[in-house]
Amino acid sequence: MISRTRRPSKSSGGAPDSPPDFAPASPPASPPDFAPASPPDFAPASPSDSLYRRSSERRANERTDAVPAKRGKPVLSLKGRALGYLSRREYSRAELRRKLLPHTDDPDEIDRLLDSLERDKYLSNDRFAESVVHRRAQRVGTSRIVGELKQHQVDPAKVAALAEQLRDTELARARAVWQKKFGEVATTPEDRARQMRFLASRGFSHAVIGKVVSGADEFPDDS
Fold first, then answer.
1. Are residues 146 and 183 in the same domain?
2. For residue 221, is it within any domain?
3. Of 53-57, 75-79, 155-159, 180-184, which has the strongest mean pLDDT?
4. What is the number of domains present in the chain?
5. Contacts with 90 (C-beta within 8 Å, 6 or more apart), sequence order
6. Considering the entire predicted model, what is its pTM?
7. Which among 19, 96, 115, 186 has most CB atoms closer than 10 A?
8. What are the pLDDT digits (tens) for 50-101?
9. CATH code: domain of residue 113
């Protein structure tokens, strides 16, 4: 039997083709080894540890108790409250008594305090009456001011004296109020009635209102 020898094929370079090199695949890597975690060791507390812990807690509580609590606003005494009111403006005795009533269960205590304040000249109905005239005379008439003083139980003799002074300037004060609000004589009955109602609501007398609204300049005040 004749064996045939296979001729090597020729490449372009004339050298025989060598078979491709294939490296055998490496086996897959083995998974990492994880050792199971051992449970933590808890040793039972010794009697000395328990005693130390109780001592620490007791000292902490003592430090907490030693911190003073925050104090609120100090409560004013009745006299301190009354002087606070009087430091802002003048009060009548009746008005100051009404202001102090919600702060005590003993009305007699208020009366004793008011007597003391009047003796020491901190409280004065006369000064209150004069302050009302000073504040209100440029805006309202005599009857309004007199009514306010009577509500505050000012002495009738003091009220009468102040009313007399106010009537002497009633016309000039009413004209100033009218000038600021209207500034010109009414030309219709409706406007005239409106001006008269306004001045009457301010407490000016009817005689003074008639003179102001009619445009009279110089008339004696016979109100």
1. no
2. no
3. 155-159
4. 3
5. 124, 127, 128, 131
6. 0.62
7. 96
8. 545 555 554 544 444 344 444 666 778 999 999 999 999 999 999 999 999 9
9. 1.10.10
